[in-house]
Amino acid sequence: METAKVDVAVQSYRKPESLLYTLMTLKAVASDHIDNVYINDDCSGESTVAYYENETIQTYFKPWKIHLRTNTKPAGIKKIYLTEYRPEYMGPWFFLSKIHRFYNSTTHNKDDVRYQYAIDNTDKQFLFIIHDDVEFRNDIVDLYLKTITAKPQTAIVGDLGQCWRCHHSDECNPKRIMEGYRPSPHWPMAIQKSQLNDPKPKKGSFTCRINEWCCMLNVAITKEISEKSRSLFGNYYSRADVGAYWFYQAIKLGYHIADPLPVESLPQQININERSEWYQHGFQGHSGHSVWVDQGSGKQRYKAEDVRARIKNQFGIDLSTLSLPPSPETST
């Protein structure tokens, strides 16, 4: 029986060793499931993209096909406004209040939104989305494939959460959500406790989501949700992190979601032992994003030399022997 194939999408920004290590650990556990890898780089420069274009690196990943794209201008972690994908809350008054931001982003195109390059170009039914700081330890692709095909109209599977930002985290958790519990009539929007009985809450955040550091999308359904809600999976929206507003729209439109490894502890005590048997997000001891901003435990330094050592020890490739420019290392 032929192994089901998926494509992979990953965003790149100035940490090529980390991204390569992530892909190498994925190849070690799920190589046969993967066909194309779409790397979208956010204008890191030649010192980063040269790693992905290197002949030795390209050869190592065969038969995978590596596709590399660079954004038209840096996108960072800001909202990208696209007139053809303008969510319902972006009415005329919204644009008048945000006019400077709107004009500042008009030179972006659709594929500058993270993961959109892969979503628009894959010919697979399912797209596996990852961050550049994940260590894979077991065939999570196979697990996600079995999960996403188990129930029709499932839009996304993966790590349900972002509980640390949710007002309902003292009473709710991913395991309870997967068992059918809903913390409020407004879920997956998180409403302030003072507003729980308000039938038309004026404030709230799009908090609950499948975290996009390790998830799988049904590509056709993803496009349907984007067209119906005029929102893109990888964009940032008001009061929402990546994927959260799209997740809200997916639920609103009646699509299903699934987490095959839901946790049941409070967010500050989450037991990730079961998940860590499959993968570890932030294998260097901190999230990848924390090398750019302080996420509560101080700004971290990207230790490129440590990741190079991991690659050499685990996969036998010494990056220092390749014709590569120095990687930009981030310090506090």
Annotate the secondary structure layout.
Blueprint: E1 6-12, H1 16-30, E2 34-41, H2 46-53, H3 55-61, E3 65-70, H4 92-97, H5 99-104, H6 116-121, E4 126-130, E5 134-136, H7 140-148, E6 154-161, H8 174-178, E7 189-190, E8 205-206, E9 209-218, H9 219-229, H10 244-252, E10 256-258, H11 273-276, E11 279-281, H12 304-315
Parallel strand pairs: 1-2, 1-4, 2-3, 6-10
Antiparallel strand pairs: 4-9, 5-11, 6-9, 7-8
Question: What is the subunit organization of this protein?
Answer: single chain
Element-level helix/strand string: EHEHHEHHHEEHEHEEEHHEHEH
Q: What is the number of helical segments per DSSP (H or I, 4+ residues)? A: 12
Overall mean pLDDT stands at 87
Distance between the termini: 51 Å
